[in-house]
Amino acid sequence: xxxxxxxxxxxxxxxxxxxxxxxxxxxxxxxxxxxxxxxxxxxxxxxxxxxxxxxxxxxxxxxxxxxxxxxxxxxxxxxxx
Length: 81
Hints:
GO molecular function: DNA binding
Strand content: under 5%
Protein name: UPF0335 protein FMM06_02140
Number of strands: 0
Family: Belongs to the UPF0335 family.
Keywords: Coiled coil
Number of domains: 1
Helix content: over 70%
Coiled coil: 11-72
Low-confidence stretches: none
């Protein structure tokens, strides 16, 4: 095989892997959407659930810092009694 053929084959394999992963990602996104719909159907607030998921992804120190900053802003705007 020539260098161009090897490079083209390698590129094709990378592209096909990416396409498969994109399909997997779409399937996972659809599954997540279904779980949120199910939760909503049982009475849970999905907007709040999404916020909790975002918070749980954060490191503890980053989460505490974000919550403290949010409280500071809420206090400044009179949203905390």
